[in-house]
Design goal:
The protein has helices spanning 3-15, 26-35, 54-63, 74-86, 124-131, 155-164, 171-180, 194-215, 219-238, and strands spanning 45-48, 67-71, 93-97, 110-116, 135-148, 183-190, 242-251. The chain is an alpha/beta fold. The chain has one domain (20-193, 241-251): Rossmann fold (3-Layer(aba) Sandwich).
């Protein structure tokens, strides 16, 4: 096993079975839905990079239409399938193992593309550019994206996040990039602060503590746990300077 393979195995060991793969909340998903203009009677919806799929379940329950949930990591999809069965939503959750950069969807085949905390894998501008052709005329895209909320963030936060996500910018920068990619901005709002801890960092921290003993004999896991602790520390110290922002966009013709 290469060092990179060992790292990703350790990463998924830490993240296995967590409720979310990034900050979020069911309430924020519902808020974003309510802010959208009217959808077609039977909207075609895809959740890109769905992870364990908490937002997929909310979309299915609220819209009452099939949600195509796509992710590359099969255990996340298996977790979503089990959750859908538990909630009686199996008939509305369509699972597909696919790459967000090449999901195998036909041009113009979506009315609503959803991406909570996942577009950063592609980068904001690249993701918007790749996904725009998938939307039909006037199609909608909702994405939450890591965003600078302070014009002068503390050095510790800037150094950590620029290393993790060099393309990260502020609200004005993301809005300008969206408009440059052929979208109309319908609205935006920041994710509430508690959504970072309640369903993401809190469960992640609890799992990390349970793996601390195992990490003593596993250098890759030790590295992953150290990075996780650094993320928590930076958020606790400087969380007011950055956050996830929901962006509500419409494809321009």
């Amino acid at each position: 096993m290469t060092d990179q393979e060992a790292y990703w195995e350790a990463f998924f060991t830490l993240h296995q079975g967590l409720p979310r793969e990034g900050p979020g909340s069911d309430a924020a998903t519902r808020r974003a839905l309510k802010l959208l203009p009217a959808l077609p009677p039977r909207p075609r919806v895809a959740d890109m990079g769905c992870g364990p799929g908490r937002q997929s379940l909310v979309l299915a329950a609220e819209l009452g239409v099939p949600i195509l949930a796509l992710d590359l990591h099969q255990p996340f999809l298996d977790q979503l399938r089990a959750a859908a069965q538990e909630r009686g939503l199996t008939h509305l959750i369509q699972i597909r193992r696919a790459d967000m950069a090449d999901p195998g969807l036909a041009p113009g085949s979506l009315d609503l593309l959803w991406a909570e905390g996942s577009i950063f894998i592609l980068g904001w501008a690249r993701g918007l550019g790749l996904w725009r052709p998938l939307l039909g005329p006037g199609g909608l895209l909702v994405a939450s994206e890591l965003t600078w909320l302070s014009p002068d963030p503390p050095a510790e936060a800037r150094e950590f996040l620029q290393a993790a996500y060099p393309a990260m910018t502020d609200l004005a920068g993301n809005l300008a990039l969206a408009q440059g990619q052929g979208y109309q901005v319908l609205g935006h709002f920041p994710l509430e602060n508690r959504a970072w801890w309640d369903e993401y960092l809190g469960p992640l921290n609890e799992r990390a503590q349970g793996l601390a003993g195992q990490a003593q004999a596993d250098p890759a896991l030790a590295q992953v746990l150290a990075e996780n602790q650094q993320e928590i520390t930076v958020w606790r110290r400087h969380g007011a300077s950055f956050g996830y922002v929901f962006y509500l966009l419409r494809r321009l013709t």
